[in-house]
Amino acid sequence: MSSSKNFSVSDELIKLKELRTQNEISEEEFQDLRRRLLNS
Length: 40
Description:
By secondary structure, the protein is mainly alpha-helical. It contains two helices and no strands.
């Protein structure tokens, strides 16, 4: 179902943002991973 996929992408974006905020990943990594998520 597409709705469950949307929720999981949203969840992943939230996790990515948290990692970025905590400096666990660089801005470049964040942008790259976010782009991949949104294109999937």
